[in-house]
Amino acid sequence: MSQVFFDHNSTTALKPEVLEAMLPFMVEQHGNATSRHSFGRNARAAVEHAREQVANAVNAHPSQVVFTASGTEANNFAIHGIASNLCHGQILTSAVEHPCVSRPALAMQSRGWQARSVDVDAHCKLDLHHLYNLLATPTNLVSVMLANNETGVIQDLAEISALSRHHKALVHTDAVQGLGKIAIDFADLNVNAMTISSHKIGGPLGAGALVMDKRVDIQPLLHGGGQEKGLRSG
């Protein structure tokens, strides 16, 4: 009996054209993108070309894109990295966030932060009245996913962002499930940071990105060779 895969919200098969584009770098071109010789320069050019492609896909500038090893890492980077450069306060996440957002927020409580959850209504849309009430307490970071991985509900990020930013909070969204399914415009969403991942859209496992605007001052999670402008070594 043939099997049919109905779990593309969890992962997707690697597209043949993606494999074709990747193969030269897996079997022929071995340069380290931080090396100064020609092999390294070629690798660096390929990385920067990929950065431009990602930026164009979400209407961002290439300088706003920081590559990570996964969407989970990018979400942890956003929560921990942004909070680490802010005064202790409140972090708000929706009640239907992926654990790679809700658990990092809860983990920040051990560092003096308060993590609270914003209710959703019967249709899994964020309760804006509850968000407004929670924002009465000084809030530094709000994280709400763009599209839910289980229900498919798409949140009104522009409205959520406007309300949150009116209260001086930075806004992050996990847009992993939206990329490739709905049009995503980083500027129109009015968020400060956005997570995306490749393996949800026919790309390889082990590749994600955090897109950030100039208001975000973020601490790296990983330290080493200073790749990604010193924000994500490795």
Strand order of the largest sheet: 1-7-6-5-4-2-3
Rg is 18 Å
Instruction: Give the helix proportion (percent range).
Output: 25-40%
Query: What number of structural domains do the residues give?
Result: 2
Question: Quick recap of the structure?
Answer:
This protein has a seven-stranded mixed sheet, with helices on both faces. The chain is of the alpha/beta class. The protein is built from seven helices and seven strands; from the N terminus they run ααβαβαβαβαβαββ.
Protein model, in words:
This protein has helices at residues 16-27, 38-57, 71-83, 99-107, 128-134, 157-166, 186-189, and strands at residues 65-68, 90-94, 114-118, 139-143, 170-174, 193-197, 208-212. The protein has seven helices and seven strands; from the N terminus they run ααβαβαβαβαβαββ. The protein has a seven-stranded mixed β-sheet, with helices on both faces. α3 (71-83) runs parallel beside α4 (99-107). The longest helix has 20 residues, at 38-57. The chain is 32% helix and 15% strand. With 234 residues, it is an alpha/beta fold. The protein starts with 15 loop residues before the first helix and ends in a 22-residue tail after the last strand.
